[in-house]
Every structure is written in structure tokens, then in C-alpha cells.
Amino acid sequence: MKRDKKRKVLAYMMRWWYFYLIGFLAMFVAIYLDMKGPQVTQSIIDDVIGDGRVELLMRLLLMLLGIGFGRAICGYIKEFIFDCAGVRVGRDLRKMLFGHIQGLGVGYFDRTNTGELMARVKDDVDRIWSVTGFIGMLIIESIVHTCAVIYCMFHISPLLMLVPLITMPLVGWTAVRLENKLDQVYQNISEQNAELNTVAQENLAGVRTVKSFAREEYEIQKFRKQNGKYYDLNMKLAKVLAKYEPNISFYTKIMLVCVVIVGGIMVIYDQITIGELGAFTEYANNIIWPMECLGWLSNELAAAIASYKKVDKIMKEEAEIKDPENPVEVDSVKGEIAFEHVDLEIEGHKILEDISFHVDAGKTLGIMGMTGSGKSSIINLLERFYDTASGCVKIDDVDIRTMRLEDIRKNIAVVMQDVFLFSDTIQENISIGQRKRMEYDTVYQAACAASAHGFIEHLSDRYETVIGERGVGLSGGQKQRISIARALAKKTPILILDDSTSALDMETEYQIQTELGKLHDVTKLIIAHRISAVRHADEIIILKDGKIAERGTHEELMKKKGMYYDTYLAQYDTQWEPVFDAE
After folding, report:
1. How far apart are the first and last CA of the chain?
2. Which bin fits 561, alpha (ψ -120 to 50), beta or left (φ > 0)?
């Protein structure tokens, strides 16, 4: 469903319209009370002090007390209500943004760094949140308050009102100049903040690699360089604020002095009363805070606008891979896989060319090849992370481009080459978010089949043991076994193992392969560098430069004495003897 993304923030604000309604009512009452205060002061000066009507004093003092009390109550309500609304808008906007990011294709993440996305989801949404809450309230209140003060001053003396009116455009011009300067600075700061986050995130995530290669000094210098740029931009921001904000404060103070001088002259010539001058001075004093806040509010508004542009840029991103408009309904998947003359291109680079193979349901396909030959790209195509440049990929004789993405991926379990484990319990990592639906026995059986149960039982809290970020504290082989258990627990008709036993010893690998061999109703794609991982597959294909260079069973490929045969000799360092069937 297409929607105007420009209106998303407004749409989320409208969800909480009753909060804003209550907040605005409290604001208007508070402003009304602010306007009544100087009128009471005028009456005290002219009627009580000037005319000696002392009987009015107690009533007027009670009115001032009531105005102060009412102003405090309304101020609390409006600030609390606007904060509540802003928090909810920020929460909804962040949830929407994160959900949108989750829906983007793998290609987007290939060209976007993690630090930038973290900055958008956290820092930029926070700035938008502030403008939809407290800061936004102050902006509106300052405008309404200023208009109300101007009206009241005009009612007292149109001539004296010329003094603040002359000053206000000067303050406004200074504030506009300030906002224009800040807008570009804040955009640059936002960009640099993302760069700084990326450097820090990469360093902390790869801290073991950094220490292993004694790379600390280099990383410190790299961080220092980005931090220096961030410092320079913030110093530029400080210079802009230092240049313009004191001017705003100076203009408002000069305006107040001029009001007293001109008003005093008008009192001498009986053009206004001294009480009216007192009220006018109080109004002029009341107009100072919106004018002084103008620079700060412009600052916050400029920051929020810059942040919104960043968020909006992400929201305009469209997923390259989408569900078809009229998807084919798939009730159950048997697991038959077919690649028919498949080509794959990514950013103009040809990755795969004329790949064709067929795997019957329940059969096993082994895939081997040099690094960069396109092995993992076959997985990406099967899970429809990318679409083919030509040809088609089919599951159960159905082109996957006509299927829902959920239907494709829920029927495929993948053990990735780069194992990713969440900072959570082992049981949660194996059940992968389905703990409430997945029985413990399923997790236990999957762990046993992956030869993971043994070491899990020796951990402090067994399956409830919380492992560190990305599996810190576990060996490479232990992480692979948990990853294999996760795939087996999913119980899908298609199982893909992408070099999933590279960190295992030969005995453990053999145990896992034995368990995998018992899955007769599961179609398996095994990508590996080891002959031992694929030798029992129903068919093996050898990739070279994105093309199929060899194909056949283990015995057939050995007889060809090609790439597969050379790999066998390199790994086993022995001659191969053909196996003949007994007649």
C-alpha cells in the first residue's frame, strides 16, 4: 500500500490528537492568564496606589495569587501532556522506521553501514520526538504568546508599541540567519555522527581481531580522526551560536530599556498612565522570553528537520525484492529445487552464469568451488535475497518470484558460513524466537543431532546459559553446532549448509553427517570445501568463475580426474582407487 511518506510524522501525531487537544487547551488558558497579570498590576498602580481605593487591594492580590496558581497548574498539564504525546510519536516512528528497515532487501544493507542506521533509529528519531513534544509546544506557545502580547500592548498604546515592533524584525532576521546556518551544520553533524558510530561499532565488534593483530594504535588513530571531524563540526556549531545568540539577547534588553524611556516620557505628557506603563513594561518583559528562545528553538527545529530528512531518505528506499501482487498459494512444500539457466548480476558484476541443476525432494546436492566462485550466491537466489538476471529458480516446480517471501523462507533452514548468535540463552538461539511455540524436546533433539548437547550440559545453566554478543565465550565449533541445531529445530523441507562444519573436527563432522543422512524427507544443499562433507551427495557440482565446471557423483567426478579429483588429492594426500560393483 503506497502512502505519502512526507505525512508519516503528522499521521502519527494525529493518532494522539486528544493529548494535543488537552495540551493546547492548557496552553491557551496559561497564555490567557499571562495576559491578565499585567492588567491586575495596572489596576493596583492606578486604582489602589494612584486613586487610593485600598478596598480593591485584597481582591486584586487574590487575583494575582489565583493567576499564579492557575498558571502553574496549566503549565504542568501542558508540559506533561505534550511530553506524553511526543514520547508516543517517537515510539511509533521508531517502530515504523525499524520495521521498514527490516523489510528492505539484502542489497540495501550491502551498501549501507550499520553505524548510519543506528544513528537514524536512535539519535534522529529522538530529535523528531522532541519537536513533536516539548520543543514543538514551546515553538507554538511562543508564537501565540507573542501575538497575544502584541494585541495587549496595542490596546494600551499603539504609539509605544512601535518600540518592540522595531526590535522584533531585527531579532527575527537574526534568528532566520541562525537557522539557515544551523541547518547545514546539523546535517553534517548527523552524517559525521553516523561515521563515528560505524568506526566504534566495527572496532568493538572485532575487538579480538584488533588485539590479535596488535592493531590498537591504528584503530585509535582512525577513531581519533573521525572524532576530530565530529569535534570540528560541533565547534563550528558553537561558533555560529556564539555569533548570533548574544545579539538576540542584546536586542531584547535594549528594547526593554527603550520602552521604559519612551513610556516615561509619555507618562510625563499624560498620554498614558503610570499604571499603563507598568502593564506595558510587564508585557514587554513577557515578550522577551519568546524572542530569546527563538535562537534555541530555531536550533532544535533545524536539527529535527535535518534528522527528518535522514529518516525520510530511508523511508523512500524501496525493497528490491517484494511479494508478487497475486502470489501463488503454497499449502505445503515437498522440497524439489530447480535452477534453470540462471544468471545473476549485482551492480553490473556477473556473479553466476547459466547455472542449471535439479534436486528431487529428499535428495542431496553438494556444491564445491574456489572462494568467490558463486557458491553462496546460489543460497541468496534460493532464499530470494536477489532476483535472477535471467532464468528462474523453482521450488516444487513453482517459480519463487510468484511465491510470497514468507512462504519461501519459512520452508528453508540455513546454516550460514558466518555464524551469528544473539546475546541470549542457548535455548532462545536454537528456537530463534519461537520459544513459546517450540517445545523443549524439539530443542533438545536438535542439539543432540548437531552434537551440541554434550558441551551445553557442561555449561553453568545448560540450555538457559546466556551467551555473549555474537557467541562470545564459545569456540568456533560450538557456535557452528548451535547454528546447525537451530536449522534442524526449524524442521523445514529444505536444509542448506553453507560450509557449516569447517570448524569441526573430523569425528564430530562424521557424527553430524550421520544424523543428516537420517533426514530422508529433507532436501539438502551442502556447500563445502571439504570432500568429506559432499562425497555422499546424490550429485555434486563444481563451480568456477560463476559457471558449473564439473558435475556428477563422487565416483564419476573422481574418474574424470579434473578439479574435484585434484581437490581430493590435496585433502587426503593419497591416490584414489575406483570402487567396482560386484557382478
Report:
1. 66
2. left
In this prediction, residues 439-448 reach a mean pLDDT of 80
Give the CATH H-level superfamily of domain 337-411+492-572.
P-loop containing nucleotide triphosphate hydrolases (3.40.50.300)
Angle in degrees, CA 301, 306, 312, rounded to 5: 120
**CB atoms closer than 10 angstroms to residue 51:** 11
Helices 57-103 and 288-315: angle between axes, nearest 10 degrees: 10
Mean pLDDT rounded to a whole number for the chain: 81
Task: Give which of 238, 254, 250, 251 is closest to 178, Cα–Cα.
Answer: 238
Are 8-315 and 337-411+492-572 the same fold in CATH?
no
How many CB atoms sit inside 10 A of residue 474's CB? Answer: 20
Residues in CB range of 212: below 8 A, 6 or more apart: none
For 47-66, what is the HEC assignment? Answer: HHHHCCCHHHHHHHHHHHHH
Handedness of CA 120, 123, 128, 129 (dihedral sign): positive
Give the residue carrying C-alpha cell 498539564. Answer: 77
pLDDT in tens, 57-88: 888 889 889 988 998 999 899 889 988 888 88
**At which residue does the C-alpha cell 523441507 appear?**
493
pLDDT of 2: 41
Residue ranges of the domains in the chain?
Answer: 8-315, 337-411+492-572, 421-482
Level-2 CATH architecture, domain 8-315: Up-down Bundle (1.20)
pLDDT-wise least confident of 196-205, 523-532, 553-562: 196-205
pTM: 0.67
Per the CB < 8 A criterion, the answer to whether 497 and 524 are in contact is yes
For 386, how many CA atoms within 13 A lie in the half-sphere containing its CB? Answer: 23
Nearby residues of 322 by Cβ (< 8 Å), 6 or more positions away: 405
Rounded to 5 degrees, φ, ψ at 322 are -130, 165
Per-residue pLDDT reduced to its tens digit, 385-430 = 888 888 888 888 888 888 888 888 888 888 887 777 777 777 877 7
Radius of gyration of the chain (CA): 36
Can you say whether residue 360 is alpha, beta or left, with left for phi > 0 and alpha for psi between -120 and 50 degrees? beta
Measured CA to CA in angstroms, residue 77 lies from 30, 53, 139, 144 at distances of 10, 37, 17, 18
User: Judging by beta carbons within 10 Å of its beta carbon (0-12, 13-18, 19+), is residue 149 exposed, middle or buried?
Assistant: buried
Cβ distance 235 to 162 under 8 Å?
no
Task: Report whether pLDDT(4) > 50.
Answer: no
3 state DSSP class of 420: coil
297 or 384: which leads in pLDDT: 384
Q: Return all residues near 543 (Cβ < 8 A) that are at least 6 apart.
A: 367, 368, 369, 370, 373, 374, 375, 549
**Alpha carbon of 429 to those of 412, 489, 499: distances in Å?**
17, 11, 20
The H-assigned helical ranges of 44-123 are: 57-103, 106-110, 114-119
Give rounded-to-5 percent helix, strand, coil for the chain: 65, 10, 25
What type of residue sits at position 70?
G
